[in-house]
């Protein structure tokens, strides 16, 4: 290993085998009787061509994603110079050599290939190199790489989301997932997927924390799952449940072939950390798709059209959208509470499909306006805020970010609120805009004539630890029938 050398891949753009192939084509096109020339020994076979001793590295093409054994154009010039020096004949530089643009930017291992055995050994590493590059391209949100995944119709896209306690970041209080098995649906002739019929989904509430651990700053709504029935699971069994669902969808690990499973999340850092904390091992060949990065790349390349910030300024390049803002820009009604792990996972997968296929049918939630989910007793946490159940829907925006007539869309403003701004560490401190979630205390009932100090007349003062319990009192005062989650939870059909 004394001759181990690293080089910058910039400038290494000529596929080695294509150099030999290009000259054989040149001889054929120009009727060159090469086999009668003194230098013909180098063109008798590709094996003989390699005896020149070619400095080479392995890279992937930035456009196609294919891996290549490449050399510099200067090495081709050195080969031609050698022929002229040794045999006194000049060969031209041909134009039909396969030229690529290296995707990799880090230094690469330089090897000298002088025989076919060495070339074969280097060539055998190309699938692993292509896999490593594909993982980076997909995670960075490269549109072409992600579209190719969807178009292959053989992957399983699994979106997941966690909700955890604000007081103790180690306490997971909810987990939800949504999956679409593209290969299964394509084989069954059900393509493109219909989210309402073809998404396998689930929502799990940790039993020990149900109605006991409630978030205040960003209220969570565990009983507001809009696409099925929530299931209770013991805290000790949640990691096992998650591992079982993931392992039922993924293929074996491999160093050369991508996994069947593609993990989807809107901002992947937090969810991956939670999986790691739960000792859930992900295979090496798993592709991770960040819908936030994907949308950002689409906007940067102009594929989402002109967009504006709430202030009226053009949206800044490199800025990111929250899941709520992304869905509203796609024309999806965001009344569904996204601070529910099941809803967030489902809508994340829906947002991905709509970015890939704008004609995707938007599903109808199983609990219209959240009314049946809200029918809970005063001692239980509310299913959702009144803004979800009683206020009108926010504006719906056309797909792909354009209003009729080509005018730019505004970022969704929510229910009269102003946008929050938070930094996105993955894009050099750029910011992301998303509508505020109104706290439950903002929805207190007020007399028709104006405001008042304290509580409504006639309301009993009940000690409560936060605004969520206060909301439970309001629901009890409205005489809503209590609804208990039974043990017979709805299990997603096996056909999904």
Describe it.
- The protein has 496 residues and is of the alpha/beta class.
- Helices cover 29% and strands 17% of the residues.
- The chain is built from 16 helices and 16 strands.
- It has helices at 16-29, 46-49, 73-87, 116-123, 126-139, 143-152, 182-187, 195-198, 238-247, 269-277, 291-300, 323-329, 341-356, 371-374, 386-389, 467-477, and strands spanning 5-7, 12-15, 54-60, 67-72, 108-113, 156-164, 172-181, 200-206, 231-233, 261-265, 287-290, 307-308, 320-321, 409-410, 419-424, 430-435.
- The strands form four sheets. A six-stranded mixed beta sheet has the order 9-8-7-6-10-11, with helices on both faces. The chain has a five-stranded antiparallel beta sheet with strand order 1-5-3-4-2.
- A hairpin with a 6-residue loop joins strand 3 and strand 4 (67-72).
- The longest helix is centred in the last third of the chain and has 16 residues, at 341-356.
- The radius of gyration is 29 Å and the shape is elongated.
Quick recap of the structure?
With 496 residues, this protein is an alpha/beta fold.
Sheet of most strands: 6 strands, mixed
* Count of individual beta strands: 16
- Proportion of strand residues: 15-25%
Helix % is: 25-40%
Shape: elongated
Number of helices: 16
Cα end-to-end separation: 52 Å
Strand-pairing-aware structural class: alpha/beta
Strand order of the largest sheet: 9-8-7-6-10-11
Note poorly predicted spans. Answer: 368-470, 479-494
Q: How large is the radius of gyration?
A: 29 Å
The overall average pLDDT, rounded, is 79
What is the strand and helix layout of this fold?
Layout: E1 5-7, E2 12-15, H1 16-29, H2 46-49, E3 54-60, E4 67-72, H3 73-87, E5 108-113, H4 116-123, H5 126-139, H6 143-152, E6 156-164, E7 172-181, H7 182-187, H8 195-198, E8 200-206, E9 231-233, H9 238-247, E10 261-265, H10 269-277, E11 287-290, H11 291-300, E12 307-308, E13 320-321, H12 323-329, H13 341-356, H14 371-374, H15 386-389, E14 409-410, E15 419-424, E16 430-435, H16 467-477
Parallel strand pairs: 6-10, 8-9, 10-11, 12-14, 13-16
Antiparallel strand pairs: 1-5, 2-4, 3-4, 3-5, 6-7, 7-8, 15-16
């Amino acid at each position: 290993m004394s001759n181990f050398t690293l080089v910058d891949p910039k400038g290494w753009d000529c596929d080695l085998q294509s150099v030999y192939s290009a000259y054989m084509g040149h001889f054929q096109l120009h009727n060159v009787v090469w086999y009668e020339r003194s230098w013909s020994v180098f063109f008798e076979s590709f094996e003989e061509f390699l005896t020149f001793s070619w400095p080479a590295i392995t890279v992937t093409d930035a456009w196609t994603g294919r891996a290549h054994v490449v050399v510099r154009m200067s090495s081709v010039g050195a080969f031609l110079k050698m022929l002229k020096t040794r045999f006194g004949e000049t060969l031209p530089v041909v134009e039909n050599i396969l030229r690529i643009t290296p995707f990799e930017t880090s230094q690469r291992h330089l090897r000298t290939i002088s025989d076919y055995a060495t070339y074969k050994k280097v060539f055998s590493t190309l699938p692993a190199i292509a896999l490593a590059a594909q993982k980076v391209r997909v995670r960075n949100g490269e549109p072409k790489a992600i579209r190719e995944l969807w178009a292959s119709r053989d992957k399983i896209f699994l979106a997941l989301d966690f909700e955890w306690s604000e007081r103790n970041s180690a306490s997971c209080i909810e987990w939800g997932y949504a999956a679409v098995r593209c290969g299964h649906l394509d084989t069954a002739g059900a393509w493109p997927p219909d989210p309402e019929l073809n998404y396998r989904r689930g929502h799990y509430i940790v039993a020990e924390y149900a109605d006991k651990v409630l978030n205040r700053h960003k209220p969570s709504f565990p009983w507001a799952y809009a696409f099925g029935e929530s299931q209770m699971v013991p805290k000790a069994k949640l990691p096992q449940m998650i591992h079982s669902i993931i392992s039922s969808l993924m293929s074996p690990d491999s160093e050369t072939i991508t996994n069947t499973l593609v993990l989807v999340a809107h901002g992947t850092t937090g969810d991956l950390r939670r999986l790691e904390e739960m000792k859930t091992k992900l295979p090496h060949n798993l592709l991770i798709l960040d819908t936030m990065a994907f949308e950002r790349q689409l906007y940067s390349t102009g594929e989402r059209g002109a967009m504006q910030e709430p202030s009226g300024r053009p949206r800044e390049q490199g800025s990111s959208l929250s899941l709520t803002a992304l869905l509203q820009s796609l024309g999806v009604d965001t009344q569904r509470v996204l601070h529910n792990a099941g809803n967030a996972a489902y809508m994340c997968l829906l947002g991905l499909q709509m970015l890939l296929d704008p004609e995707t049918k938007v599903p109808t939630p199983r609990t219209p306006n959240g009314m049946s989910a809200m029918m809970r007793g005063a001692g239980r946490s509310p299913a959702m805020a009144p803004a979800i159940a009683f206020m009108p829907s926010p504006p719906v925006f056309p797909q792909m970010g354009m209003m009729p007539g080509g005018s730019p869309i505004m970022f969704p403003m929510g229910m009269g609120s102003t946008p929050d701004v938070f930094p996105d560490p993955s894009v050099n401190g750029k910011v992301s805009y998303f509508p505020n979630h109104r706290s439950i205390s903002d929805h207190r009932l007020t007399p028709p004539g104006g405001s008042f100090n304290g509580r409504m007349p006639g309301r009993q003062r009940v000690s409560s630890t936060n605004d969520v319990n206060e909301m439970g009192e309001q629901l009890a005062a409205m005489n809503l029938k209590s609804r208990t989650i039974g043990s017979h939870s709805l299990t997603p059909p096996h056909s999904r």
